[in-house]
């Protein structure tokens, strides 16, 4: 056999042997595919990708349990694949440090954003922007929270009321600069207990301390309310636990109103002192004591609220004033004397818009509580305190007095409607449903005539007002 025939025979045998090899050997060879150092490897599906918003391709490499991302610097897939193969070859030959230095130099890396410290002021700003509460309500929330923060952090409150010289602004800036994450529930609890312990020696002071602490916590908690917190967290990173998590209220003392005034004497004395000389102050007293209006409702009451034809007063939101709540809207029946009084005042000022005359214009955009009739209220407060009316909130005490009278005469449901409470439970919390006078009869007459008691003859004994015990009994039911 010549050499040509021998070579041809060998070639034919190799092809035959190759065709008879097991299928898995062929598949293994196909599975190996292209080397990562070959651009064709990177052209296969999903080995390169585009980051969101980027036109250029990127890829990732893994070596020695380390994985890094590289931008390939081209929107052209073939060019990007060639770059990927180049980086891979460089990585195999030179290692991670040299590859990162060569293809991702530090100068080209974006600088990390500075860590933003979440402050009390930043949180308050976000909460107030997101919340749907009224500006005056939000102002109450933020004041309460800042008060708690300032006391916990022992921030000096000197000059807090000095707005003209910047004292209040300086104090607020200090409070707003406190890191929110530095306020833990344990700090709030310690603050609460410290306030209560400071007033523990005096039962009256302790009662006031409980009411104040509960009010400050309740208002502050509203800034962290469930309805707005998820939206705040879309903007700010809040660490748990939040300051008021787990903080409970103290069991509040009884708020039941006990009358300590003679309302009939108050009206009589006010009529004599003010009806002619200070009619605006007299109107305030009648609207509070007879109609049961709140101070803010009196301040912005419009003459159009009076319906003289139906003897009613309609309390509702106007363009000058938003009621405390939608439930505060209501219609109040007016007695003939009160109706005649205001009809007379209206006749004297037929073009007036507001029932209470004041030189100051109304404003419903102020963040803090302020009154158009503040000077008039100041005169009324001084006069009421002089007459022995409870000194804390004398005008509101007049509203409580008529609530007590209506409850006593007509029951708690009638009082709730008259005062326009949002819930009957609020009325029940402040007023006892006492329609009839209840006096025990068991000991009637025993103290009326001590001489007859001593002799053992109590039959027909008289009381201090001269009525017999029998007649008193007959008058009770």
Structure overview:
Helix 12 crosses helix 16 (394-410). It is elongated and about 115 Å long. It has 20 helices and six strands. The longest helix has 27 residues, at 77-103. A hairpin with a 6-residue loop joins strand 1 (49-50) and strand 2 (57-63). It has four domains: 34-107, no CATH class; 120-232, no CATH class; 263-430, hpI Integrase, Chain A, CATH 1.10.443; 437-477, no CATH class. The protein has helices at 3-19, 23-32, 39-42, 77-103, 120-130, 135-152, 167-176, 185-198, 203-221, 229-232, 263-274, 279-289, 295-299, 336-348, 374-386, 394-410, 412-419, 424-430, 450-455, 469-474, and strands at residues 49-50, 57-63, 66-71, 306-307, 312-315, 330-333. The strands form two sheets. It has a three-stranded antiparallel beta sheet. The chain is mainly alpha-helical and 477 residues long. The model is unreliable at 1-31 and 452-477 (pLDDT under 50). 49% of the residues lie in helices and 5% in strands. The relative contact order is 0.05.
